[in-house]
Amino acid sequence: MTTSTRFARLAIVGMAAVAIAGCSSNAKSSDAAKKLKPAASVTKEAKSSTTTAPTSSSTGAPTTAPCTTAAAQTALAPDRAIDITCNGVFAAGSASNPQVDYAYLLQDVNGAWQKASTTVQNEVCTSNPQGLPASFVASACND
User: Fold this and answer.
1) What are phi and psi of 73, to 5 degrees?
2) Which of 59, 78, 79, 110 could form a disulfide with 97 if both were Cys (CB 3.0 to 4.6 A apart)?
3) Residues ≥6 apart with Cβ < 8 Å to 48
């Protein structure tokens, strides 16, 4: 009685899987495997990529506060901003009210100027850990 043996081998080449099937009658599996020839060429499958657009909750407002006396005026009201100098997230200058002229320091918070906290004001005017230029510090601290 003649027995026919069917087999299939799976070869992993790079990232593609290639099935190699063979048929042999009256042969041992190992003899049939020796007769198999490798595939002439195997091409890698193209990698697919997905690009997702970033989501944002921004309303289109500027990300930094404008360096204008009008913008500073909003933060200093009812006092009047006389001038402004900006450096990164800080603005400094002179302002006045009916009693006195003074130096101010503002900090950009979400695109709008706000008066810097007393702690930040003291840091800028004493140790300046922010590394602000001396002329800027003078504008913020000369009162």
Assistant:
1) -55, -40
2) 79
3) none
Phi, psi of 17, rounded to the nearest 5 degrees: -100, 135
Closest residue by Cα to residue 33 from 22, 25, 41, 42: 22
Look-up of token digits 């008066």: 115
Tokens standing for residue 89: 């997230």
Mean pLDDT of 108-116: 95
Q: Where do the DSSP E strands lie in the chain? A: 4-13, 16-25, 80-81, 85-87, 90-96, 101-109, 112-115
Which tens digits make up the pLDDT trace of 31-84?
Answer: 544 555 554 544 455 454 444 444 444 455 557 899 999 999 999 999 999 999
